[in-house]
Amino acid sequence: MGAEVQERIEEEIDLLNLAQKILSGWRWVISGGLAGGLIAGAVLLNQQPLWEATAIIKVGQVGQAGQVGQAGKMAVEPLPETIEILKSAAFAREVSRVVGVDKAGQNLAAIDPQVKKDTSFIEVKIRAGSSDNARKAAEAVTTILAERHNEIAKSSIYYLNSELSRVRSYLHDLESMQKELANKIPGDGGSLSQKSEKAFIQYAILIPMIIGKDTEIVQMRQRENDLILMLDKSITFPTRLAAPVVVSSGPVFPKVGWDLMVGACAGLVLGMLIALLKGVGVTSKRVGIDS
Length: 291
Hints:
By secondary structure, the chain is an alpha+beta fold. It has 2 domains: 25-47 and 254-275, no CATH class; 48-253. The protein has helices at 2-24, 26-45, 79-87, 89-99, 131-183, 197-230, 256-290, and strands at 51-58, 61-65, 71-75, 112-115, 121-128, 240-241, 246-247. The longest helix has 53 residues, at 131-183. The radius of gyration is 40 Å and the shape is rod-shaped.
């Protein structure tokens, strides 16, 4: 127990000596803190303030064939691919061009897109040298992406519209043929016993044909309804902003208070190290003189 107590006392003495050495060099500590703060301030003066805009983008979708009476839907472009496109340098250059920034990256920070979990929404954050440019950049991201997706979806939407036109045309032909067949049924509606054998044969041939056309017409009407549902605005729609762009009320970079504090703290630590080294040097000289 005595040895442990002695060891603790020695540790406390060592810590006390360190504290005394640091306090004796208090000028270095204060100077280090001030220097760190001044250096951080100088760096901040050369940093361009950046505002951040946030856009929530609803990725466009195109109707797909589903179960009877229902329609599926699929994103115009897979979300992972859309995210990679948004992160690309080429996309950033196009946004810079639309916003009016002379050089990509000069007044426009990188685009930061993220998929909202379990949704087809993409949250895009983008920074620029002014609140106006940040808003324009966020809107430009949406516009450029929408143009890209419209081009991708063009062929699918064209097919759906063409198929709808074809089905309607064919349906019209079926109804016309059905009316023609119905007009060929002989007699004035009397009983079969009153009809001639020839009329009976015609009747026996025409009725199954009319029923067949009825079945086909029902199928085509269902196909028409499915296509109309696939093209409905709730199923097929373009990429668009889901909500107005939100811009930060002030610059989000640099964080002046935080950066100054970090600089000052770094300077204080450096000053403490210098004071400690100075104290150790003075102690060593005294020991040499005493000896």
